Amino acid sequence: MKKIVACYKWVADEADIRIDEKSRALNFDRVKYKISEYDRNAIEVGNSLKDKYSCEFVAVTCGAQVESSLKDVLSRGPTNVYYINDEILADADGGVTAKVLAGIIKKIGAVDLVICGEGSGDEYGQQVGPRLAALLGYASCTFVTKLDLTDEGLMAERKLEDGIEVVQVQGPAVVTVLPDINTPPIPTLKQILGAKKKPTTKLSLKDIGLSRDACAPKLKNIGVLGTVMERKGICMNIDGLSIQEAAEKLAKRLSADGILG
Amino acid sequence: MSGIWVISETPKIAWEMLAKARELAGNEVVTAFVVGDYETGMDAISFGADQVLLLEMPANIPWEECRDVILKAGETNKPSLIMVAATRRGKDLAAQLAALLDAPCVSECKSIIKDGENFLTERIVYGGLAVKKMVSNGCLVATIPPGTYHPEKIEGRSGDVKQLKPQGFKMVVRERRPKPATSVNISDANIVVGVGRGFGSKEEIQMAERLADILDGAIGCTRPVAEDLRWLPEECYIGLSGQVVRPALYLCAGVSGQVQHVYGIRDAKTIVAVEKNENAPIIRIADYYILGDLKEVLPALIGAFAKAK
Ligand SMILES: Cc1cc2nc3c(=O)[nH]c(=O)nc-3n(C[C@H](O)[C@H](O)[C@H](O)COP(=O)(O)OP(=O)(O)OC[C@H]3O[C@@H](n4cnc5c(N)ncnc54)[C@H](O)[C@@H]3O)c2cc1C
Ligand SMILES: Nc1ncnc2c1ncn2[C@@H]1O[C@H](COP(=O)(O)O)[C@@H](O)[C@H]1O
After folding, report:
1. Considering the domain boundaries, does residue B177 fall inside one?
2. Interatomic CA distance for residues B219 and B267, integer angstroms
3. Do A254 and B270 touch (CB under 8 A)?
4. Are B193 and B265 in contact (CB under 8 A)?
5. By the 8 A CB rule, do B129 and B285 touch?
6. Distance from B158 to chain A by nearest Cα, in Å?
7. For position B12, which CATH number holds?
8. What whole-number distance in Å separates Cα of residue A182 and Cα of residue A49?
9. How far is the CA of B256 from the centre of ligand 1 (A)?
10. Which ipTM score applies to this complex?
11. Nearest ligand, CA of residue A66?
């Protein structure tokens, strides 16, 4: 039985982040967290392979506050979630994250396939997947839109700038998947309730043999500045104006602004 | 640790990065890893490289499998900076090199400044909402989007060109299906009509096309319209992972205005939205908007613009 791992990141929902117009500082006061958008595709790939080939399928995550993600991820198919929750990971860069994830995956042992998203919702560095492959000594198979297991490894279609490349991999691999690979279903009530009964496996940095020094990021954040836009925000169909009238008003406005011809 | 490496599968992006590498390197050695023949190598020298290592990959091996042979070349001297073209293959390769060198990697780096021994870099985070500044220490890997720097040919330069022989691959290419050539070019259009998932079917896009015809504009769309629904070619999608446009007018319908999409239209002079949900984020970033069903609004707009012209 093949063993499959999906890696997901628990990220701030970028739609909830507000930017202070004056200081351009980011305000996270009303931010909710979520499983990074494209990692839901990664989880669903693992889930469908589990159903198709009866593989063992678990999820993996790490971060400073990932415990609230566990029920959510378990409702999406994996039978267990292995995680490290440590305050030191609040500043983790892609390098640190990959080391921690590689440690967890080695601890799980004999993993045939690791599935990551194309990129995370906050960093979108598109680097943790291939980094993991290098650290684990696995093949790195990125930007995948179709994936199937073979006896020796896998076959995948990768989408690159100039077209599709069909590749064959012998042995274990890390793949990163594009969002067009599938449409992740919204968990049903039954799946949400079922998630509560599934086990979780908490690990520590010590368990994976990673020192706290090794978790110091080599990229230090020295400031994040939000971008703001000045826009007019004028509604064309207020005061009971019909769509027809609003359309004509808009055409006049754009002509007056010198945009139409 | 000294010197700068420039790695690219296409010569043009190598030349762009070489211009920046030359500026940062001072008297240090700039090494270019490029694909091609001796001629290609000599070109890289005239664009700023001191030495060139040619990567010759077997036809059925993905280019980024040159990872190990590149690392081998650096066994005796680790560079202070490795610049890799931010193509999909380049990003894969860069991240693997960074992992094996235990180095930080700045993806899609927007600016690099040398600060003593360190580098200051900037990149976009949170779906396009913000710019993050970072300082790195030790060897830095950065991927550079095509078009970031201007190549400069310098007359009379000389240098070594050597051939590398990559080996030890984990992947084999079974088939390649080149993307059909399209004539889509929305980045230069003066007016762009944006199509979002609010369109109910592929047929309804005809309304957007008629509007674009009347306005003499081009059609753009959101990522799911191109990638999930496949209603329009991928060259049409605008945003963080797609095209960035700077038209005089961006008029969109059925586009909710998520940050990743908005990143690509930030510099539009005027933004107009047609949207049925007044709480959609696009409303907050539009100059003008019409609240309503696009099936009703677009025909009205087609009529009004036809009259106004
Ligand atoms: C890492 C990452 C990168 C991404 N990169 C990009 C990118 O580069 N470009 C991009 O576009 N997206 C990108 N996305 C996806 C992005 O987050 C949004 O999912 C996407 O932009 C939404 O597309 P949409 O507006 O077409 O669809 P939706 O969000 O579904 O919006 C549809 C809108 O249409 C409205 N509507 C529905 N019916 C009608 C009607 N009859 N009349 C009028 N209005 C109607 C709805 O009210 C809604 O506001 C990225 C996401 C991630 C996580
Ligand atoms: N903290 C994390 N925990 C688990 N997986 C992660 C984490 N960070 C990144 N990943 C995985 O790596 C992918 C790429 O992340 P990034 O390099 O940040 O764009 C994500 O889509 C996830 O699959």
Report:
1. no
2. 17
3. yes
4. no
5. no
6. 33
7. 3.40.50.620
8. 12
9. 5
10. 0.96
11. 2
Q: CATH number of the domain at A3-215, out of 3.90.1300.10, 3.40.50.620, 1.10.10.60, 1.10.10.10?
A: 3.40.50.620
Calpha distance A164→A159 (Å, rounded): 5
Q: Which of B121, B171, B222, B285 to mutate to test the interface with A (most CBs of A within 10 A)?
A: B171
10 Å Cβ neighbour count for B302?
A: 18
Q: Is residue B16 in a domain?
A: yes
- In the block, tokens 């050695």 appear at B29
How many structural domains comprise chain B? 2
Determine which of B288, B297, B301, B309 to mutate to test the interface with A (most A C-beta atoms within 10 Å). B288
pLDDT (tens place) for every residue of chain A, 261 residues total: 899 999 999 999 999 999 999 999 999 999 999 999 999 999 999 999 999 999 999 999 999 999 999 999 999 999 999 999 999 999 999 999 999 999 999 999 999 999 999 999 999 999 999 999 999 999 999 999 999 999 999 999 999 999 999 999 999 999 999 999 999 999 999 999 999 999 999 999 999 999 999 999 999 999 999 998 889 999 999 888 999 999 999 999 999 999 886
Total-model pTM: 0.96
Tally the C-alpha atoms within 13 A of residue B303's C-alpha that lie toward its C-beta: 12
Q: At what angle do helices A243-256 and B294-308 cross, to 10 degrees?
A: 40
Measured N-to-C along each axis, helices A94-108 and A128-136 cross at an angle, to the nearest 10 degrees, of 50
